[in-house]
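Known limitations

Files may contain more than one protein. Parsers should not assume a single record per file. Below, a two-record file is shown to illustrate correct handling: read the sequence, read the token line, then continue until end of file.
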Amino acid sequence: MAKAQAGETVRLRLVLTAPPKGAVFSLQGKDGVVERQSVSTGADLVFDLVARVSLEGPAPRWLGDYVRGGQADRFFYFASGVYAGEPGRADGRRGKVALWNIPEALVHEAAKTGAVLQATTPGADKHGLPACASVKANWALA
């Protein structure tokens, strides 16, 4: 039973492709804590984080400092602007990266081998602003 509570450690990587130059991005931990703040140069931004996953139920159950949401719809946030701790900004955005829709075979492989589960998603929306809301991530083993 302890293993189900602790879960397997899984390394996750978020790649934001072509984020707007000059925008400040970060991961957002629990309670809105800003982590790994980075200023975009326009090149892809990469954020690494660790989560745990319990594989003992009917579906993977995600746990950890970055994991949010209910059991059936777990996700993590990346942030920009004021939510990323950018000084002097009054506005900000958060992007929501779903964990619940990662193909289960990839989750099992990452837990078994220690491979990184990588989510790739555009860093900008169709207007050229930092990506926000629920983003469509392509998951693969890195």
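...continuing to the second record:
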Amino acid sequence: MDAVDHVEITERLMGGVEIVAAYVLVFLFAVGVFDLGLTIGELILSGAITDTTEVVDLVDTVLLLFILVEVYRTVVAYTREESVLRIVIVTAVIAVARRVIVFKPSDYASPDAALFTAVGLAVLVAALVGSLYVLRSGEGDADPF
């Protein structure tokens, strides 16, 4: 058995591990959706469904589930040896949007710290949206978003 044979074996093993990772992500997504359903049910029964903090927490959970979906799509695309750049950028946009939505200036030690974080998030959003625009317009899509 030469080096090429060993490389082929490891490539097959890696492909198997990638498939297992995809199944794990599907399982985590299913658990997350189930948990989200339980949380919504509890909020409805308790009457807290209209509480702003609870709604923001629900949106945070939904966005986290979307991130799981995008990571799953990344694993699948990688396994198929397709480009993952657009998927990774979309995942990053969702992750940063999640941080923007749950951003509370009161969580920071000073107004300056909150402002610095807010500016940083704004720069990240602009950079990621700009990257997505450039990437998608380069692919020849009529609608870059």
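Parsers that stop after the first record will miss the second one. For reference, the second record is described as follows. The helical segments are 3-46, 52-79, 85-101, 111-138.
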